[in-house]
Sequence to fold (628 residues):
Amino acid sequence: MSHLTTAQISASLDGALTGPDSERVLEHLSSCVLCKEHRDRVATHDDALRRLFAFEPDHRALDESARAAVERFARFTPPANADKPSIQQDAHATPADPAQPLPPAREPSRGMRTIGADAEADQPLDIAPRLDTERTTPPRPERGPGSLVETYDAFNDGAYAGPAARESPPMLGRPLPKPEANAEPLATRKEYRHGGVRRDTPAPSERETPVRRPDRSQPASRPDGFGVKREQEPAWARLGLQPDPSAPGAFRETLTGAVISPPPVAGQRSRAKRSSSGRTVLIASLALIGGLAAVALAIRLPTGAHLSVRFGGAKDSTPASTPGSIEVRSATTAPPVDVAVPPSPGGPATTPEALRLCGQVVDVKGRPVDGALLTVAATITQTRTSADGRFCLEAPAGMQLVEVLDPRGTGTTARQVRLSFVSGAPEARVVLP
Amino acid sequence: MDTRSSMPWTESGPNAELLRQARSGDVDALLRILDPYKLPLWRACLAITQQQDQADRLFEETIGCATQELSGAPDGQPLLLWLVRLARELDAHHARTSPRDPGVPGEAGSAGTNRPDGKPWDESAPDVDVERHALRAYAMLDTDDRWLLALRLFERLSYPDIARATGVPVDEVAGRLAAARDEIDRELDAEERAA
Fold:
């Protein structure tokens, strides 16, 4: 029987478990003191956070705050036929009244000011979205009033299709710039899907005519020669040589006419480069081997200790160790790793019948000990004594080693007693010093 | 499951006619739209900032930003989700410009110096240490994990509602909530040992 995971405890606290999962967790919690304590501890933290945040604001102040924010950020137009104020949605749109001055243009990435300063109350706050691309984004074209909802939806359809689309985040709902007059309407624009997103252009394999790529084999026809790549010039020309017509493969200096040996073939790696990359691989391999050796030595040699891993169900010659625990003990000749594998649960091993034994834990004066933790060493069955020191334990039949943790002490020393789990056994009496 | 009404988080959106009026410039229509969302939005701001005064400021900024960006409010979707998204973006913007440092417990300006309601800690209260350490551990959580925990603990949404509100699968909601609780448990354990 293993302990509950944090996920099971969390789901149990939230009531998200149903059916057999819930029954299994409840059954385990009823028998495992450690898991129950863990669950209670997490519930305590939850309750503490709930208490801290369980207060409500002044509703009147909240209403006033909301109204003030709406009216501060709304720009009112002079009422044409009614007294009701109205909001100009687009800060860049032309106001209804030509006499009213235009607001200052918003820059994309200015900092925000906090609300509340009276001196700044009359000025519009600049709430800019958090965007890395804003710093390099060119100024946006002026937007006019239009169907903003439609452009927003169209923007969402093309979200994350490229850096241009990320200029305006969908989470803030900022509408796209108004399309050009001769641009194709969004509704009639054909969409393509490839690469996991919608695009305006078809996939390369679906294009009717192949995309014409620039011919990079020819130098650019610029009168000043700017842009001609050096790779297009032969290597011997860059070195000031010319082929020797009398001796194929030989070259002659253009100025002096001296015959020299041919330069190395372009694209062939030099021996120095090969040896350099070989040295890199060799150094990396040696470093890896050295690191592994250092880890191995750090585990075994310096402390003279070895790791002992024990799983539940193993026959243990040292009953003080807790099954399932990992302990490091000093040793000089023992093997470095000692692993005892538990028997397979579906194997032929017989499962002894579990018997129930009740008893009482008392001190030397016969007074009951409350809260003593009893653990059957061969299993993880645990229980705590009640206020009158009584307990009931279930364990496989036979003589079992039981650890008794005295709550009056430091909590680290456990007393071990042997209890006989047989049918019809009298009540056990454990005396703690 | 202990749940609160998830209506503001999962509804189909505000009244279309009201929204159209608000977009056309009707202030009263906009205030009527915002009215049912004010309290949950303020609670969300408190969960994000963990301090009442900062929550008040973030709430007001969010309402102002929503007024400016109302044309971008999605139709047919919960308006509260959009408002909270604005609040989280604004808070992230503040965090980038002036990051909040959890600091050292007990020091001025550190997380956990004051209760979220702005009052000083009552040292005579029985669970004051647990509350102080829990608040500090909560503040040190990852932003998304903190938000998931807030939706569960403070808004008491069910796992499916949290998944719907955040776009995170239900299994991941359960896993991240468990991880957040485990993180808080470990932080408290470490601080108790240190004490």
Remarks:
- Residues 104-109 of chain B have pLDDT under 50 and may be disordered.
- The CA atoms of residues 22 and 29 of chain B lie 5 Å apart.
